[in-house]
Every structure is written in structure tokens, then in C-alpha cells.
Model the fold of this input.
Amino acid sequence: MQFGNRYAEVPVKVRGRWPERRKESAKCDPPGRKYSVPGPQSMIRKLKSGQYRLYSRKKNAKTGKRRNLGTFSTREAAEQHERDIQFFKRR
Done:
């Protein structure tokens, strides 16, 4: 029979939060950012035809699919269109 510390297995409360509830991704965030953006930053996919298609970042709640925001011949054109969209969204 062992008489060790019976409370050694119990998690300790740290600053009002339990350790299991803390976000692990908070350690990885860059210092200038308040939060990390969920999901991929760029939704540009290459099609079988060789063209590039730009999709919305968020999925439609009803269908579960992303909206097609345009098809482009080069990746640079798709990236430029994505920048234009972000500019007008925050205008």
C-alpha cells in the first residue's frame, strides 16, 4: 500500500480557469495579433483545367459549401481579386 499525495492527479486552477479549457493555439499566435483567424487564409484552388478558382472563406450554413467568387487563368489574378474583395469589404 502506497501513501503518496492523493491530490497529485487533480488539476490545479490557474487564474480562474482550469488548464483543460485553455487554448493551446494562444501560445502560437504572433505577438501583434489579438486572435488567430480560423480556417485557411486563402481559398484559391487549382482546377483540373489548370485554372484557379477563388472560394469564400466561410461555408454556407444550409448547404455546407463555399461560394464561388470567380475563376482565373493565373494564381496572381486570383490573389489580386481576393485583395480587391477584402478592400471593398472593409471600405
